[in-house]
Amino acid sequence: MEQKNENSTDFILLGFFPCFRYPYLLILLFLFIYTIAFTGNSILMLLIWLDSHLHTPMYFLLSQLSLIDLAYISSTVPKMVANYLTGRKNISYFACATQLFFFLTLGLAECILLTLMAYDRYVAVCNPLRYTILMNPKVCLKMAAAVWIGGAITALVHTIYPMNFPICGSREINHYFCEMPAILRMSCVDISSYEMVKFVSTIVFLLGPFFLILVSYTLIFLTVLRMNSWKGSNKALATCFSHLTVVSLYFGQAIFIYMTPTSSHTPEQDQIAAVLGTIVTPMLNPLIYSLRNKEVVGALRKCMGRCGN
Question: What is the pLDDT of residue 309?
Fold first, then answer.
C-alpha cells in the first residue's frame, strides 16, 4: 500500500462517539460545560486581578491555571461545535498540527504549574518565615515563564514527530480533535521507538512532577500534624485539599493516555479520558478553588457589591 502524508490533504474528525444516536445532546452538553468553564475561569482571573488581597503568589499561580484551563477547553470545544453545526468534519494538516501543539503545550504547562503550586503550598506551610523571600514576585514571574516555555518546547517535539509519520489509507481521526494517540493509530510504520520516547517523556513530565507533589504534601501533612492551632491547620489543609483534587483529576487521565501504549486502549476510552481532562476538569477547577476558599468568595461578594452600587 502506498504511503501518503501530504500536507495538502485534510484529516477528517469523526467527532465524539460518532455512532451515538443523539449527537446534538452531546453538543448541547459540551456547550453548557464550556459556558460554565469559560465564565468560571474568566471570573476567577478577573477577581485575582482586581482584588489586592489576592495579589499573592498562590493566587498568581492560580490565575495561570485558570488561563491554561480557559485556553485548554477553547482549543477543542469550539472547533467540535463548529464542525457539527456546519456539517464539515475536515481539518487541514496545518490546523491539526496546530491544535495538537496547543493541546500538548497546555497539558504540559498545567503539569508543571501544578507542581509549582504544590511547592508554593510547601513553602507557605513548612517555611512560612521564608515565604516572602522564596516566593517573591520575580520568582513567580520566572515560574510562569518556565511553565509556558517548558510546555511549548516539549510540545513542539511531540508535534513534529507524530505529524510526520507516513499515513496509509483513511485519514479519518476517530476523535473530536487532533490528539496524539489518534494520530499514531493512522500510521502505517512501526512506531515502537516513538512509543518508548513518549513513555520516557511521560515519566519525566508526569510521574516526576507527580512524585514531587506527593513529597510536598507528605511534608505538609507532617507539619500540619505538629501544629498546636486547630484553626491554623484547618486553613493550611483547605487549600491543599483543593489542589490535591485538581491533581488527581489531571494526572489520572494523563497517565492513562500517555503512560500506556496506544494499542492498549480503544479510541472510545481515549475520548472519555480526553473529555475528563480537557472539558470537565477546566469546568471544575474554578469551582473547586472558589467554593472552598473564603478569600475568593469574599472577593466575589465585594465585587458584586461594587457593581450593585
Answer: 62
pLDDT digits (tens, 9 = 90+) for 126-172: 888 899 999 999 999 999 999 999 999 989 988 888 888 888 767 88
* CA distances in angstroms from 219 to 117, 123, 176, 226, 294, listed in the order given: 14, 10, 41, 11, 24
Q: Are 279 and 36 in contact (CB under 8 A)?
A: no
Residue 211: HSE in the Cβ half-sphere, 13 Å Cα cutoff:
7
Q: Cell numbers 469546568 correspond to what residue?
A: 283
Given a cut of 50, whether residue 4 has pLDDT beyond it is: no
Output the CA angle 29-33-38, nearest 5 degrees.
Answer: 145
Grid cell listed for 6: 501530504
CA–CA separation, 299 and 69 (whole Å)? 21
What is the C-alpha separation between 236 and 9, in angstroms, rounded? 54
Does the pLDDT of residue 6 top 60, yes or no? no
pTM of the predicted model, to two decimals?
A: 0.84
Longest dimension (CA), the chain: 72
* pLDDT tens sequence across 102-128: 988 998 898 899 999 999 989 988 888
**pLDDT value of position 292:** 62
Residue 71 CB coordination number (10 Å): 17
